[in-house]
Amino acid sequence: MTSTDARAAAPEHLGHVIFITAAAAMGGFLFGYDSSVINGAVEAIRDRFDVGSEALAQVIAAALIGCAIGAAVAGRLADRIGRIRTMQIAAVLFTVSAIGSALPFALWDLAMWRVLGGVAIGMASVIGPAYIAEVSPPAYRGRLASFQQAAIVIGIAVSQLVNWGILNAAGGDQRGKIMGLEAWQVMLGVMVVPAVLYGLLSFAIPESPRYLIAAGKVEKAKEVLREVEGSKIDLDARVGEINLAMRREHKSTFRDLMGGRAGFLPIVWIGIGLSVFQQLVGINVIFYYSNALWQSVGIDPKSSFFYSFETSIVNIIGTVIAMVLVDRIGRKPLALIGSAGMAVSLGLAAWAFSYKSGTGDDISLPDLQGTVAIVAANCFVLFFALSWGVVVWVLLGEMFPNKIRAAALGVAAAAQWIANWVITVTFPTLSDWNLSGAYMIYTAFALLSIPFILKFVPETKGKSLEEMG
């Protein structure tokens, strides 16, 4: 059996490899959990600190500032001190952020703990996929890499389920007392449990063989390769492959991205466009504000938390559909299906919210429009999850030429965090102004994404990375 044949076969310890991947993907779980757990606390924070929509939006969006910082430093940190140590730092930051967020004494320190949690999210968003790719047997890399995205959507769902359970324990009052704390504080503090688990699991998994080889620890790297790829592979040849790949790598810089008539190369602008459209359709309004959204149209708090949990299950279903279809029907067709479905769903939601009546806490929708709003929100999440939620990340990983891939991905990811921040900060004010109007804006962006895909986005299905230039 050749080295290639052996690597294509299942390693003896595939179950252990799956455990290693799942442990690393806990960072993705925390990414999803910390991103959306704030959903359950929005209205309580507004009431506790007596703040308006603009100040509230800044606290909710504060984590996104940290995300950009964490994503920017994670790669270099991982190259300097190792993947495992970087995971452990992220786990500590998640833990400290959870405790601090649960026990704030003022609005500004709540925002500070949110920023710290955001740094951990940014680090987890970079280190998890990189580590999983480096420890996965080549024949299983695609399937194991999907653990990260699956973990993110499961983290979102679990955070909503936990919030719902805590709210029920507090008698339906977000400021009701549990263990001497208000319910919303417990919601934010519970993240200590998965954060500590992530840290503990990091001690049970090996360092990346790629990092070990770069650090001159070749024998240790061979042990890890034998552990994850099986004993039948030629370890010396495998180490040689990794060494050669690292020597050939071009460390792309910001300067490599320049050269187009509008500054960046055209392909870089396409990547930025994909990232920005993914956020401007308003998907994170659902994950950050859905409880407040449903309560603003007359749905009681307990029911609003249930609808938020149910929507996160729809998100998981859509993500699974995307993982099944993305290699079968292609990236562009899936994105187009998603854009059309999102535009229709958002348009229906905008129509339904235009029937909102009442003011303050006495707000309601007619029965028909209330039903349409809930169905449309779920359809929107489903169409997003089965298309743009997965396709954008697949395209960004494939469409850039090898020479600029790393730097271009960094710019596209930064554009995504900025667009996410803009949507998160502006929604409370837009909602106060005109909830239906806010959804019309998101509908417009979903419609605009269709000609963008048709005219500019390349199809990468079935092409090797080398074919991208």
Outline the structure in words:
76% of the residues lie in helices and 3% in strands. The chain has 469 residues and is mainly alpha-helical. The strands form 3 sheets. Strands 1-2 form a two-stranded antiparallel ribbon. Strands 3-4 form a two-stranded antiparallel ribbon. Strands 5-6 form a two-stranded antiparallel sheet. A hairpin with a 2-residue loop joins strand 3 (258-260) and strand 4. Helix 2 (14-37) runs parallel beside helix 5 (83-102), helix 4 packs across helix 19 and helix 11 crosses helix 12 (235-248). Mean pLDDT is 84; it is low at 1-9.
Q: What features would you highlight for this structure?
A:
single chain; 469 residues; mainly alpha; two-stranded antiparallel sheet; 19 helices; globular; disordered N terminus
Radius of gyration: 23 Å
Given as residue ranges, the uncertain stretches (5+ residues, pLDDT < 50) are 1-9
Specify the biggest β-sheet.
Answer: 2 strands, antiparallel
- Residues in helix, %: over 70%
Helix/strand order, N-terminal first? HHHHHHHEEHHHHHEEHHHHEEHHH
Please report which band the strand proportion falls in: under 5%, 5-15%, 15-25%, 25-35%, 35-45% or over 45%.
under 5%
Could you say which overall geometry the principal axes of the C-alpha atoms support? globular
Q: Structural class of the secondary elements?
A: mainly alpha
Strand arrangement across the biggest beta sheet: 1-2
